[in-house]
Specification:
This protein is α+β, with helices and mostly antiparallel strands and about 625 residues long. About 40% of the residues lie in helices and about 20% in strands. Bound molecules: adenosine-5'-diphosphate. The site of adenosine-5'-diphosphate has 18 residues, from helix 2.
Length: about 625
């Protein structure tokens, strides 16, 4: 017998599982059955694709045995099994590299969310919620040796030789007090129907049920073995035979979700290439959506045999939230996974599937805007990702993307923007990290006054996407955060009407005082209420872009030098002008005056940066200047 220590991340995970997830104990069965089903998938695939396994013929079957007297539950499969090394590797580490760092980042409330367990490939360990001890007896297909992995879930596990008739795996759970309720046939039956009804292989529930005499006394036991599920590939069944409930139940067991999907698309393609596909759009954002290597949710089957859900990017990466199945008879079963990526039939199926999902979304946008708004609230960011990465489908994606806007309540499409814009050939947008703050930005004042609609890009990705868009139906995109966006504003704004002379003086003063902190100071056409705002020169990156880049590359970038715009009608700017004239004339030596001018100029810049959500280098300076001026007022 050999004893091993769990890898640190497994110990952390076990800790997490046993302490935070007690309210979701029952998922252990779903996870074990799903592993059993995966193991059968793997063996079926090997038996048709790999010469070494071709001789194996087997009837796939999953069995769940419960013994209330011995207090054990055994989940058994005749799948691929595990060798000694595989037992140590698979049940002693967490395979997926992102899982560890992800676990560390989880917030407390996330940790209570059982769905994360299935998604991050840590399903097996959930069994320790209800076990004092777990034994995994496994014999790998094609070998004649069996091994037993055993652990109490505390720090270490051991592996010993064992015996098992035939290949496959038994997971034997020694149930603890927390798992009491699962030691009955009745409760396991309910759980299997709830979570595993749509597993494509037969699941048998096996137990010894007590028999009672007339007086209600137990008089021996009766062997009971019943198949619980229909074990059919739901996606191959004709649509008219299926109820909504069937689709929803299948989704819950397939995607390991507690809630039903937002909607689904079931297609049977007939013609030159035949295939069945069933796609689900979830009703909430999957926990791993921001994880860059998130696994695709679409599984590929060929002739009902599971082939892969890895390697082949069946749908583009931005649709990684889609769950579902593609199953075709027209692909060769023994095709290697690499070749699949260049296979013509596969490409056709992929393109048709993507088109199908697009057209479903398009028609929903048109005919069921309420539902589409729900989709937008969940996955608009991924549509934007598509805009930034999938040029081929840009036109379609432009039709599906939605924005918040100063011109309408709720979501706005680009088409609606265009219709409201009349003859204008410019789509204005503003970017930053909070919708609320953007709506209050001084940059929008004159646009609001002139009734020019501005799209609000408060998603981090907006900065990149807008910059890469170019054109929409003959209209060009222009960032309000840039200096040249005011070209469309005309002359009759604050700058045009206020005292030209005072404006000039204030501008000169600010330029002299702020020096290198600004690229330029000018009078603004876009301000009507606020004293100042900052914009970037038209070829410089915006402040938001700079922040995004710093975050992505994790490096500091030089301080940005914005253009400061002043509102000559504002009292604070007038005061700066006044100080500047007095400095030039009667009281050149007055240090108090110079200090005031300096304070005001810096305050004008700092408050404009603040309004853009920027952190400035020396907040203490800002506060000091502000306090000094307030005390004088
Ligand atoms: P996941 O199934 O998400 O990969 P688990 O922690 O549930 O994560 O299982 C870890 C690994 O252990 C699986 O990927 C698989 O290789 C192996 N495994 C688990 N259960 C079985 C089983 N019944 N038969 C064969 N291999 C299994």
């Amino acid at each position: 017998m050999s004893t091993y220590a769990f890898k640190t991340e497994v110990s952390q995970l076990l800790e997490l599982i046993t302490h935070s997830l007690y309210s979701h104990k029952e998922i252990f069965l779903r996870e074990l059955v799903s592993n059993a089903s995966d193991a059968i998938d793997k063996l079926r695939y090997l038996s048709i694709s790999d010469d070494a396994y071709k001789a194996i013929s087997f009837e796939p079957k999953i069995s769940v045995y419960v013994d209330d007297k011995a207090r054990t539950i055994v989940v058994s499969d005749n799948g691929v099994g595990m060798s000694e090394e595989e037992l140590a590797e698979n049940l002693g580490t967490i395979a997926r590299s992102g899982t560890k760092s992800f676990l560390e980042k989880l917030s407390d409330s996330d940790r209570k969310n059982s769905n994360l367990i299935g998604q991050f490939g840590v399903g097996f360990y959930s069994v320790f919620m209800i076990a004092d001890k777990v034994e995994v007896i496994s014999r790998k297909a094609g070998t004649d040796k069996a091994f037993c992995w055993s652990s109490t879930g505390k720090g270490e596990f051991s592996i010993d030789t064992s015996v098992r008739e035939g290949f496959g795996t038994d997971v034997k759970i020694h149930v603890n007090g927390e798992g009491e309720e699962y030691l009955s046939r009745w409760s396991l039956d309910g759980l299997l129907r709830k979570y595993s009804n749509h597993i494509a292989y037969p699941i048998h529930l096996i137990s010894q049920e007590p028999k009672y005499d007339d007086k209600g006394k137990e008089k021996g036991r009766e062997f009971k073995d019943e198949q619980i599920n229909a074990a059919s590939a739901l996606w191959r069944r004709p649509k008219n035979e299926l109820q909504d409930k069937d689709y929803i139940d299948f989704y819950k067991s397939f995607a390991a979700e507690d809630e039903g999907p937002l909607f689904w698309i079931h297609t049977k393609a007939e013609g030159t290439i035949e295939y069945n596909s069933l796609f689900y759009i979830p009703s909430k954002v999957p926990g791993d959506i921001y994880y860059p290597l998130a696994q695709q949710g679409v599984k590929l089957y060929i002739k009902r045999v599971f082939i892969t859900d890895k390697e082949t990017n069946i749908l583009p990466q931005y649709f990684r939230f889609v769950r579902g199945v593609i199953d075709s008879d027209d692909l060769p079963l023994n095709v290697s996974r690499e070749i699949l990526q260049q296979n013509r039939v596969m490409t056709t199926i992929q393109q048709a599937s993507l088109k199908k999902i697009f057209s479903e979304l398009e028609s929903m946008a048109k005919n069921n805007p309420e539902k589409f708004a729900k989709f937008t609230a969940l996955f608009n960011t991924q549509i934007k990702e598509g805009l930034a990465s999938d040029w081929q489908n840009q036109k379609t994606l432009l039709g599906l993307v939605r924005y918040k806007s100063t011109g309408a309540e709720g979501w706005t499409s680009l088409e609606e923007y265009k219709n409201r814009a009349g003859d204008r050939k410019t789509i204005y947008y503003i970017t930053g990290n909070s919708e609320e703050r953007l709506r209050a930005s001084p940059l929008l004042e004159a646009f609001a006054a002139k009734g020019l609609e501005v799209l609000i890009g408060s998603d981090e990705i907006d900065e990149l996407v807008f910059a890469s868009l170019g054109q929409y139906e003959g209209m060009s995109f222009k960032s309000v955060n840039h200096s040249d966006a005011d070209e469309g504003l005309g002359k009759d704004t604050a700058a045009g009407t206020a005292d030209e002379e005072a404006g000039k003086k204030a501008t000169e003063a600010a330029k002299r005082i702020l020096g290198e902190r600004v690229k330029d100071v000018r009078l603004s056409k876009r301000l009507s209420k606020s004293p100042s705002c900052v914009v970037m020169d038209k070829d410089d990156p915006t402040l938001q872009y700079r922040e995004l880049m710093m975050r992505i590359s994790n490096t500091e970038m030089p301080e940005p030098t914005p253009i400061l715009e002043l509102n000559p009608g504002h009292a604070l700017v007038k005061k700066l002008a006044d100080l500047e004239s007095r400095r030039g004339a009667a009281e050149p030596q007055d240090e108090g005056l110079a200090q005031d001018a300096e304070d005001i100029a810096h305050i004008l810049l700092d408050q404009a940066l603040l309004a853009e959500g920027q952190k400035f280098v020396k907040p203490a300076d800002f506060i000091q200047r502000l306090n000094r001026q307030l005390a004088k007022a």
